[in-house]
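Support reply, case 0932

Customer input (verbatim):
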Amino acid sequence: YWPDLSKGGLARHIFEDSFVMHNASLVRRSVYDAVGPFDEKMLRSLDYDMFVRLALHTTAASTEEILFDQRKHDGARGPASVLHAASKSDNVWKEYDRRIFERLRTEAPLTYFEGMFEASHAGLVRRAALLQRGTIMARHDLWAYALEDWQAAAEACPLPLQNLERDICRRAVAGKHGFAGALEASELGSLKRLRGMSDTGQAICDAMLDGLIWRLRDVDTEARSGARQLIAKLEGPLGMAKVVSRRLKSKFTGNEETLLRELRAPPSINQLD
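Our regenerated output:
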């Protein structure tokens, strides 16, 4: 799950997926002192929890150099209280990742996410921040939070959705935990309401569905089936053709004036305080 770190800020990448390992990190002692000790209640993902906390409180740099090799065995893993087979790791990680991002939702103000973007129109920055926070929540299977943010985003700015914002929405269904939560009845209802709110609401949903195209080629049969279901439920029986046609059309339209850009480093929580 190594992301393209040439695009966007490192904090955003850390929030969207866990990809950094502690044996490849160097952290100032003063920063560890500032964020506090590891949470021993996190029997899994406590390293990811720490990186999220670090990303909120300080800036970071990265290197593409390979620093270590890791061997992963196929046997049971984890402490006795959460012992599980290697094949079940994703379910266990998902459970603990949700705890991390439920806490992030309460601890990080929207102004932190606004600090990830720059535009001359304040409403555009706010909308991008809401879309980004929503996408982070969606990638960790917290779709109720995601859709709450996206509905607020649909009302935040009258300008058409920017290419950068569409990319944010596409990433909502590209996380390693999949998008099963979007198929729950309550979340599907919220997606349909979002789509009917305004042209912006429809554009947000359309961009999210565009992100499912690569899932149709996923090696995971459950992901492929889920992608077809979600497209059909929101677009109808001809949904697949609509999504593919829309995606192809977007690749050949004229250049859009760039009003919004993503910054490399948002302000830290400490700076906001």
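We compared this against your earlier run and they match. Two observations from our side: The CA atoms of residues 29 and 36 lie 11 Å apart. The radius of gyration is 19 Å. Please reopen the case if you see a mismatch on your end.
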